[in-house]
Amino acid sequence: MLDTRITQLILGMFGIILLGTTGYVIIEHVGWFDAFYMTSITLATVGFQEVWKMSDLGHLWTIIIMFSGIGVFFLIAGHIAQQAVDLKRYRRFRMAKRVKKLSDHFILCGFGRMGQSIAKELRAANKSFVVIEKELDKITDITYADFVFIEGDATQDEVLLEAGIERATTLIGVLKDDQDNLFLTLSARSLKSDLFILTRATIPGSIPKMKRAGADKVINPYEAAGTKLARQAMAPGVVDFIELILNRGNLDLALETIAVSAGSRAEGKSIIELDVRKNFNIIVTAVEQTNGEANFNPDPHYKFSNNDKLIALGTVENLMKFEMFCETII
Questions:
Q1: Which of the four, 24, 151, 213, 245, has the lowest number of CB atoms within 10 Å?
Q2: Strands 309-314 and 283-288
Q3: Residue 225 included in any domain
Q4: How far is CA 39 from CA 10, 24, 25, 45, 52, in A?
Q5: Per-residue DSSP letter, 148
Q6: Which of 36, 71, 95 is the last residue of a domain?
Q7: Domain range for residue 34?
Q8: What gap in Å lies between CA 2 and CA 302, rounded to an integer?
Q9: Taking Cα atoms as reference points, which of 102, 94, 109 lies closest to residue 128?
Q10: Looking at the structure, do residues 108 and 202 belong to the same domain, yes or no?
Q11: Is residue 89, in this structure, part of any structural domain at all?
């Protein structure tokens, strides 16, 4: 449905055409079609020659039509531009409201091919996230997919704050260049010290720089893809099983990381004491200890410590129950 103001301006343009045509008929005593044609080429400013030898009064009438038409045209163009600006402001306001409702969410910086895949995975896993992107063509794709997003440069502090970085748990940097991802890491780490930062590096030499800048994990997509292809070739069954879990589709099965908090009911207790298999129906496949060591297939008598990270396999519902069990009791 057209905006009321634009409708009025368009009707005004038709009114000028009708008035101009009638004026030529009365002033120049010409036919209606010739008068309409002359009015049209005058408003269109195409520069065609006059249809008939025009009087001075006819020339004056032509000038009036021309400037009236140009005036209405600029009014229409200006109103459309204003509407576009207002729509953009409304979209930013609406997105800002959606972002303010988020907490413990992910911030995805960049919506290229990798960013799109990550966004689909996050949505499939029911994770709250916001996308930051500055390129207009990609913003169109984000809007079509109905993702929460912020339009802007992810390396700028104000944009990260707008994305709710103070309430976020994880930032994923998949910007186009390593340099941009490095600046993003520096900015994000300065804004939130306990934020988990995962970023991409296409040049191996960038990885140590990003870690020094504050990245918790840096991934080279080419190396990761090569490793996956090699494992698929050597042990296809194992890789297919992991893919079945991670890309579970309709299977209510997940492999998740669960942190043990200080003061929780899990702290200081062993797997056998908690009887994890019976009480929660999950499998603890590994424990990443605070010293960085990974304990795969942990001993049933291993006692969980504060900040231990457990890699557990089970249904989403059971994993959520165990995660609540491992949280601090207030």
A1: 245
A2: antiparallel
A3: no
A4: 16, 8, 11, 10, 13
A5: -
A6: 95
A7: 4-95
A8: 69
A9: 102
A10: yes
A11: yes
Residue 243 lies in a domain: no
Least Cα distance to 131 among 122, 214, 13 occurs for 122
Distance CA(94)–CA(175), nearest Å, equals: 25
CATH number, position 109: 3.40.50.720
For residues 132 and 195, membership in a common domain is answered with yes
pLDDT truncated to tens, each residue of the chain (330 aa)? Answer: 456 777 777 787 788 888 888 888 888 888 888 888 888 887 777 767 777 788 888 888 888 888 887 777 888 777 777 766 666 666 667 777 888 888 899 999 999 989 999 999 888 888 899 999 998 889 888 888 889 898 889 999 999 999 999 999 999 999 989 999 999 999 999 999 999 999 999 888 888 999 999 999 998 887 777 776 776 677 676 666 666 656 655 456 677 888 888 888 888 899 899 988 889 988 888 898 877 778 888 888 888 988 888 888 888 788 888 988 998 775
CATH number, position 32: 1.10.287.70
**Looking at this protein, which amino acid is placed at residue 213?**
A
Furthest C-alpha separation in the chain: 107
Asked if 106 and 215 sit in the same domain, the reply is: yes
DSSP state string for 280-328 = H--EEEEEE-TTS-EEES--TTPBP-TT-EEEEEE-HHHHHHHHHHTSP
Q: Judge whether 296 and 285 are in contact, CB under 8 Å.
A: yes
pTM over 0.85: no
Position 330 in a domain = no
